[in-house]
Design brief:
It is a single chain. With 265 residues, the chain is mainly beta. Among the domains are: 92 residues; 82 residues, Immunoglobulin-like, CATH 2.60.40.3580. 8% of the residues lie in helices and 45% in strands. The chain is built from two helices and 20 strands. A hairpin with a 5-residue loop joins β6 and β7. It is elongated. The protein starts with a helix and ends with a strand.
């Protein structure tokens, strides 16, 4: 029996190993950290936090850039403040924007909620957002935000040893729910390209309120133009060198869609 089962198991292990593929490498150091967030409705993003430079870089799950070079309105360089709770509608009801919290998770301080455009939505000073897993002999867990049958609740402890409980507009993204996104797929063709490329954004974005930007692999802006009414942006790449490029569709205040194309020479 052993001489039959062992080769079979070796074949299975070999096939399983082939399913694990390295997708991307993000460089971090003592001042950088990478987190995975759910903005709601299973819209996952990678967020690179640069504490030293007070900067956030947000990437899609396919590792294309979503929002790059966001400066946090308050400095993270002290090492005590940290961003978290990235969401589209947890703290307000405007799902077209992204907001996030910044607070000191270990001591009394300020709790801020900002949009990615820098708008301050909420600030509470001299409070502690309680966070404890396995506290009181592992009998209780505590965290700043809970989902309840009456909506999401935000908890603070103030300097008078009082609990302050706030009601929030949305809810913490917890459940997996499939979403049909076919109507919003952006097509770039031919891809790779040697001379010309068409980026079909669709008629949804084909009006004066939206623009498309082209960036190189170092996230340097090459050009920005308005999207025509039919949603099709045509571009000649003769002046571009070989390599990957990114396109970003955005409104005045937010990035809506991103994608990637490759130039071959």
């Amino acid at each position: 029996m052993k001489t039959i089962i062992l080769p079979f198991l070796l074949i299975i292990c070999s096939n399983l190993n082939g399913q694990i593929v390295l997708e991307q490498v993000y460089s971090i150091n003592y001042s950088k950290d990478l987190i995975l967030v759910n903005l709601g409705h299973d819209d996952y993003k990678y967020v690179m936090i640069d504490f030293y430079n007070d900067q956030l870089d947000i990437y899609n799950v396919d590792h294309t850039p979503f929002m790059i070079g966001l400066t946090t309105p308050v400095s993270l360089d002290s090492g005590y403040l940290a961003p978290g709770y990235f969401s589209r509608s947890l703290f307000d009801c405007d799902s077209t924007t992204i907001e996030y919290a910044i607070w000191d998770p270990i001591s009394m301080g300020s709790f801020y909620v900002y949009r990615t455009d820098g708008t301050l939505l909420f600030q509470k000073d001299s409070v502690l957002a309680p966070y404890c897993y396995g506290c009181y002999g592992a009998s209780n867990d505590k965290k700043p935000i809970y989902n309840t049958s009456d909506g999401a609740k935000l908890w603070f402890i103030n300097s008078q040893n009082e609990y302050l409980i706030y009601g929030l507009c949305g809810e913490l993204p917890m459940q997996v729910s499939p979403i049909e996104n076919e109507a919003y797929i952006i097509k770039a063709y031919p891809n790779p390209t040697t001379s010309d490329i068409t980026i079909d954004c669709g008629e949804k974005y084909g009006n004066s309120g939206y623009k498309i930007s082209i960036l190189d692999s170092k996230m340097q802006l090459i050009q920005t133009r308005s999207i025509p009414s039919d949603g099709k942006v045509q571009m000649n790449v003769d002046a571009l060198s070989s390599g990957p490029y990114y396109y970003v569709i955005k409104s005045e205040f937010s990035v809506l869609r991103t994608g990637k194309f490759v130039v071959l020479k």
